[in-house]
């Protein structure tokens, strides 16, 4: 029998290429390492290609090692050259505080709660009126004031505001925004007031992208005009073109909890629906070879235009590449290998941007397709249903269930949750969202005719209202989602090993796979027990980096005690985004809160923590010894007097204190020889108790 990887030749390239990308990033390997490896491996590989059959047979492993080394080296080189800081003209190498920056807006402004936001390209740095051409991208935020920025895509502006490198908040378990931005080619950000920029007369635009942005603007205006209801119109915008700025946070969380968040993130499902519609509309284009060629070109072009219109996310690009291969194979009357098509699309995407390997959408997209290909048919064959309607319902459930098998470990790893009601929600939401998508396409076509547009918009609004209400109703059940899951990478790998062994055992009836399955299950629970033991032993203090707020957690075993601003108990977004990831990463559970309204002292394991958030009264008659003094909410105090009454080893300034005050306090600490930690600059403060 021919090994399966022989039938998927591109997989043999994809695996070492991915390994090279991972090694290049995590080990910070220079491109010279890749060059040396390639120079050594290539001659060996070509030597064996022209050697005799006997030599090839006995030294096949050398041939394999050299082949894989070449593509590992390619992956290392890709990871190096695609990092902007490694470019010789990167703006970060030359920028100095006070320089004037010339930027070009790469997209229209999008409105946020307090700012207008846009991605921009850094083109020139002016230092003492001398310009230097540079490369780089920055996210620019225009503060909302009395003047709305009259800016659009392609405008060129001069900015005097300081160019800041993107930094993470540094909270445990928090989202690595700096890495995410870097992988998307963004390294800096600017916060600009209306008097800190000047618009230049020239404009640098691309006709194609200007047309795309105009089309997006027209689609958004049409949806907002005809689809009534804020939640309904925001879901329609996200569903059709992936515009998410208007989405309600609680509604998005409800979609995520119920396992249907893929509906409001343009993905392969949407491309599949568009592909099906296009094939139906062009089904008559099959009379001769010329007509088939025309149909293939039209379908491919329209799919690519739609993918670019939606923002070309990793999952959309995966889908459009695979559909391009499928349409091309049909045109040539050839039956493609689905695994090879997947490997080809992944290979093309990684060559374009190697850091897509870390993109959650990229991972989930390929996991879902592979899961459907592997498990859809065996699951569907569980039941033989004669009734066509019931059979269709069972097929939809089999599709949903099969897609969850390989995506669930990733969801638990990245999002720390597992939806339990996904079968029910997908059974209702997927057909409804499909109707809405087709309805929105119809709305765009009939939008010039007011009567038809209003009728279509009314129907779409009702469908979206029903879908939203159903999702919100399901989300009310406590068992709708298993939350707070924390899996280490090794546990995620073991879960995939368990799935693979179980699949081989159940489908192939392989007894050896059963033994492997039992072994992987034992290893998984052993790892779980090990991490559980670590959790029970932990005793930590965490002072979070949360702008304008005070937040502290005492992590004691599997319990945490919160001390901080009461607003953090009410604002679900701030709590879920800044505090919850840390609690999940520490595997802790909710406990009664400690909300200090006055200065407070805690003692844990003979370590004293003093919290000062109000004006401090100095008492020279007694001295307090504290291991850590936490200062928050900008209290009125003087450190030289504080030192006389408090013998402290370390002072922690949290992010609720203003920056101007921190400068004075830090200067005083350096004069007095006091150790200090500033969360706004150094990230969260974590100390073992």
Q: Which segments are poorly predicted (pLDDT under 50) over 5 or more consecutive residues?
A: none
| Rg computed from alpha carbons, rounded to a whole number of angstroms | 29 Å
Q: Treating each run of at least 4 consecutive H or I residues as one helix, how many helices?
A: 22
**Could you say which overall geometry the principal axes of the C-alpha atoms support?**
globular
Please state the average pLDDT score: 89
In percent, how much strand structure appears in the residues? 15-25%
Give a short account of the largest sheet.
9 strands, mixed
Task: Find the structural class using helix and strand composition.
Answer: alpha+beta
End-to-end Cα distance, whole Å, is 60 Å
Helix amount, in percent? 40-55%
Total number of strands: 22
